[in-house]
Amino acid sequence: MDLKxxxxxxxxxxxxxxxxxxxDVASGELVALLGPSGSGKTTLLRVIAGLLSPDxxxxxxxEDDATRLSLRxxxxxxxxxxxxxxxxxxxxxxxxxxxxxxxxRRRPDKxxxxxxxxxxxxxxQLQEFGGRYPxxxxxxxxxxxxxxxxxxxxxxxxxxxxxxxxxxxxxRVELRRWLRRLHEQxxxxxxxxxxxxxxxxxxxxxxxxxxxxRIEQVGTPDEIYREPASAFVFDxxxxxxxxxxxxxSGTFVADGQxxxxxxxxxxxxxxxxxxxxxxxxxxxxxxxxxxxxxAVHRRADRITLELRLHGQAxxxxxxxxxxxxxxxxxxxxxxGLEPQRYRIFPAART
Length: 350
Ligand SMILES: Nc1ncnc2c1ncn2[C@@H]1O[C@H](COP(=O)(O)OP(=O)(O)OP(=O)(O)O)[C@@H](O)[C@H]1O
Known about the structure:
Residues 3-237 form the ABC transporter domain. Keywords: ATP-binding, Nucleotide-binding, Sulfate transport, Translocase, Transport. The protein is of the alpha+beta class. 25% of the residues lie in helices and 33% in strands. It has two domains: 3-232, 3-Layer(aba) Sandwich (Rossmann fold); 240-346, CATH 2.40.50.140. The chain has nine helices and 20 strands. Helix 3 crosses helix 4 (110-123), helix 3 runs parallel beside helix 5 (139-152) and helix 4 crosses helix 5. The longest helix has 18 residues, at 169-186. The radius of gyration is 25 Å and the shape is elongated. The structure holds adenosine-5'-triphosphate (ATP). Adenosine-5'-triphosphate binds at residues 12, 15, 17, 35, 37-43, 195.
């Protein structure tokens, strides 16, 4: 089912946890809500679930206004970061819980519930685990069961709040790939909260970037990464350098006059050039603009140079795609550069 959010606001004292948020999620989409701590991700998910009432605005499931409905009436599936399985129930009983606790006229019979539990155990690849108790499962297995339990009621939407947040990095990566495959099988409309940009980019059909209760950008992972709509999104998604300069009649100027780049659509005044470390090309000729090498960092998979422009206090980084017999530049020397992909934004007013 599709989901529409219209002008949703929620305040706590003088904090706007959600500030007039509009969002459309198509049926079958997997959408990540991404943003730093306190940006409003969990609040948005909880308002959609019916766990929190908004101050104003509407939540629509299909054409139906669900704003005033309870969690149960909305029939949503919810998975929390911390395993919320019932300890005293077996895995199978946990999965069956949502169906068993339905009012009698909507409750499937025992055989149907047992069949559904088997199907779900198979779907989350834990067929042998129905008789176990939650304490006999690993963290990753518990979250797969929590997901099976959320899916059991055939929810209108599936809402996941950092479901892998408490797991270690390797298990997280395995589980997010597993979740993507599962989503392809079920086609369930899903909203997924994360503060991990890699998780969002790898998993989601579309990513919603939140900041201070507002949507900064909505787009496919590619759009968000390649065409960030603001300095905030550029900085938040992946590694970014910000170089100080000015825009003057459609030209960005920095480093005295040495660095000049077209900036047609940026208003005149203080501005910043945003460029990722791997989007800076080293020029072996004495063309382009030049920067001083401040430090050389060897990493497992790359070499990163720390560079500085004339007159700028803050160094920036360049990833050097080094060949085995390349000679690394010396500290204090200068190298020629060319940004291959970049964005220029007016400097934030403080
Ligand atoms: N019950 C509450 N009482 C007061 N303020 C709250 C409450 N819940 C959330 N807030 C505030 O609302 C804002 C949004 O919080 P929310 O939990 O939605 O952010 P988040 O993006 O999910 O953050 P995190 O990644 O840390 O979970 C924050 O400033 C938070 O302090």
